[in-house]
Amino acid sequence: MQTKETIVCRCEDITLDEIKALIEQGYRTIDEIKRVIRAGMGPCQGRTCRMMIAQELSKYYGIPVGEVLMPTFRPTVKPVKLGTFAGGE
Amino acid sequence: MQKAADVVIIGGGIIGCAVAYELALRGVKDIIVVEKQYLSSGATGRCGAGVRQQWGTETNAILARDSVRRFEGMNEELEYDKDIEFKQGGYLMVSYTQKEWNQYKKNVAVQHSLGIPTKMITPQEAQEIVPHLNINGLVGATFCHSDGHANPFHVVDAYYKAASRLGVKFETYTSVIGITREKGKITSVQTSKGDIATSMVINACGYAAGTICKMVDFDLPLYPQRHQALVTEPVEPCQGPMVISLHHRLYCQQTPHGSFIMGVGDPNEPKDFNINSSWEFLEDVARQATTVLPLLKNLRVVRQWSGLYDMSPDANPILDEVPEAKGMWVAAGFSGHGFMVAPQTAVLLAQKILGQECFMPIERFGLDRFVKGELLLEPAVV
Questions:
Q1: What pLDDT was estimated at residue B265?
Q2: Which value does ipTM take for this structure?
């Protein structure tokens, strides 16, 4: 697979190559990778990349995907304007 | 895992990692940092990321002033392969009440006595700096151009890599389950991965520092307090400084990435370890932020989270050895501003532990101030 051109996190433009390099460097969980490279921090909140990174970690450590630590699912479910929360709209 | 070490640092946040680096830099061998989860997984990685020198107590102001100088040269000093993203857009502290303004004047006098270049400015001047600032009812503002913010994950990563190069070992996903003393002195630390014989422990656990102190039967006067924050979608740069309104309990900044990060303090927050996100926070922060910075009403929130302040009784840190357990040093109680003072706090603690001359009196951060009732009350906490 063309790992240099494969985008894993579409919101933040992170490639499979970059993810694999971080795993090689010893970043062990989705949370750690997210914090160092922003994968999963964009508007979709990791809906695509979270599971793809989980698969990479699962392959690297030889563990089932289900055993890869999931980051906390945080509100909001979808982007909402501050004005809406403030009650103005 | 190693069976013995000269120093065991508990806590892989900014304080633990920076202290590890400063000790190793001064020649200490065999340092192990033990972290329950991953580096910066606690309060550091959840903080508002601001770096300000505009404090009301001399102690906080000196630590912050000197830490700013360290942040300025940190990429080079720590030879970091990425970027700590230190942006000095300043801090604009706005005041909407006369009482608050009087306090700001006192704070600025403290800052000026220490050479911190804070300016007292009019509402119009404040609006020139932040065009979307609501100046209705604004009494005045203070602005310090060299304040700013940095990326906590990268600052910790930079210290971690620099400390590793100096030989420091990091044991992540490792919990401390006990601490053994003999005749009032630390002899070993029990972890989920085995025991480490040591005569020195540095307790850099933030809100969990009290839990660690209980292992040596010491009651640390700290309590955890949840603070929530949110981040928005990124937009073009339009706000240089962090804006703080203590009256609205609000802080709000635009990161180099373009997103806005903001939070409000909740005066009714209970003293417990809860770090769940609440919808009440979203409404509260949205109202305060759109009152002070109305333009932000069009920004979309993408994520909210929370973390814990390690509140000390006077909102100043505790840097001291536990009297009943010689060899255990506490570096906690930063009360929501540990990240910004970490670089110099780590230097101060390393100097003290190694018996070197301290660049400022460390006694002011001692535990006995709570016994004597000589508190260093910090008036400028959000």
A1: 92
A2: 0.91
